Amino acid sequence: MSIVRLEHLTKTFGGRTAAVDDVSLSIDDGEFLVLVGPSGCGKSTILRMIAGLEEVTSGDVLIDGEPVTAWPPKQRDIAMVFQNYALYPHMTVQENMAFALKLRHVPAPQLTTQVADTAHLLGLSELLDRKPKALSGGQRQRVAMGRALVRKPRVFLLDEPLSNLDAKLRVSMRAELARLHQRYRITTVYVTHDQVEAMTLGDRIAVLDQGRLQQVGSPEELYLAPANRFVAGFMGSPSMNFATVRLRGGERVTAALDGLELEIPDAARRYPGLAEHLGSAVVLGLRPAALSLAGPGDPAVIEVVPLGVEALGDEKHVLFEAPRDGSRDEQRQTGVVPVAVEDTSGTRLWTAKVTQQADLAIGRPVRLAIDVSKAYFFDATSGQAIA
Ligand code: ATP
Q1: Ligand 1 near 45 CB (within 6 A)
Q2: Which terminus of the chain has fewer Cβ atoms in its 10 Å neighbourhood, N or C?
Q3: Which residues form the ABC transporter domain (predicted)?
Q4: Parent domain of 266
Q5: Under a CB-based contact definition with an 8 Å cutoff, are residues 219 and 205 in contact?
Q6: pLDDT tens digits for range 178-235
Q7: Distance in angstroms (rounded) separating the CA atoms of residues 203 and 341
């Protein structure tokens, strides 16, 4: 059993705003939890506090119910793999992998067997006599993993372990990591800023922003039911599109967007929370796949001018300026043309994911249909999801 529990974990560096702010989270025995978030959100600091490499400002780290916050790293029986692998350059692969076992005075025959087994599992058997400088990036990565796994730690921590590998190798190492986890079932916390890695590897994902936990859940939960605008914008590629819309209605609820009154089907049942926002502005979220090339009978169509077209083989991504808030009638009456809202990364572009056959050119207007049944709504002030 190795359950890791973080209780109100907080870290402040020199009196500035907290790098990690009151994070409480439980990682189950054998679970693969991914900590994800943008650069500087506090992921590595959390990992280092679990490992005992960083002092905790307040809060606790518990392993199997026992507070280990004051314990030195080596007493915690945790193995960590770093982004730069941190292999000992003067030691061979065999020596690198055996090092932690030697420190624990594991008898030589057992040590040799354990290293050989792990090396075999990781496809390193032929490389045991090499030094790190004679290995490729992927092989070094494997040695770092092997070195951490060989001693069967209670908890396995990985800090962006794949970020130094090329794209193809990253995909195959991702599969390898998943396979290793299936086999060993060691409680694992994995840090990445890559939401694809998070979605494919995590049993659960914890999303962080500015030191605060935003949501914890399965990849599907985070994708299908994001708790707030930040999570909605972070999970999914390309990112969700956002626009401010004015809601109207009673029986039928509509959202005014770029001259359209989009009817929200079955709004009372699907989004009961919208009732409180009628007459005011909310943030509409649409994933790029909720926009498609418009056909003749489509009810909700916007005309856009592509600013970029990215052909990706199976599909195309069209980038265009975000539609504006409110209806065109209102714009005419008031003379005020609102500006397009920014997404969480500060851009004012929307993306549509269309089929590879779509005939598109930069600058040539194109009509896109909006599938309103796939809409998300967020409170315009708090950013919390409205459901
Ligand atoms: P990245 O993905 O870029 O590695 P991260 O999410 O892992 O980022 P952390 O490395 O945990 O982020 O850093 C969180 C915040 O704490 C950042 O603002 C960072 O500048 C700050 N920070 C981290 N270590 C220290 C330190 N030793 N002294 C001062 N500030 C620090």
Answers
A1: yes
A2: N
A3: 4-235
A4: 241-379
A5: yes
A6: 988 998 899 999 999 998 999 999 999 999 999 999 999 999 999 999 999 999 999 9
A7: 34
- 159 alpha carbon, distance to own chain's centre: 14
Name which of 376, 47, 80, 69 is nearest 232 in CA terms.
376
130, 5, 103, 17: which is closest to 61 by C-alpha? Answer: 5
Helix (H) or strand (E) holding 45: helix 43-51
What is the identity of the amino acid at 363? G
Alpha-carbon distance of 24 to 56, in angstroms, equals 13
Q: Is the CB of 130 under 6 A from ligand 1?
A: no
Phi/psi of residue 197, nearest 5 degrees: -60, -45
- Kindly give the number of the ligand 1 atom that is closest to the alpha carbon of 208: 6
Beta partners for residue 279, in sequence order: none
Residue whose CA is closest, atom 24 of ligand 1? 45
The verdict on 348 and 257 lying in the same domain is yes
Number of structural domains, the chain?
2
Unique residue bearing structure tokens 């109100």: 8
Query: How many whole angstroms separate alpha carbon 205 and alpha carbon 190?
Result: 9
Cα distance between residue 265 and residue 324, in whole Å:
22
40 lines ligand 1 (CB under 6 A): yes
| Joined tokens for residue 147 | 């070195």
In our burial notation (b when 16+ CB lie closer than 10 A, e otherwise), range 26-61 reads: ebeeebbbbbbbeeebbbbbbbbbbbbebebeebbb
48 lines ligand 1 (CB under 6 A): no
Interface confidence, given as ipTM, is: 0.96
Q: How far is the C-alpha of 320 from the C-alpha of 356, rounded, in Å?
A: 17
One domain for residues 141 and 273: no
One-letter amino acid at 289 equals A
User: What's this model's pTM, rounded to 2 decimal places?
Assistant: 0.89
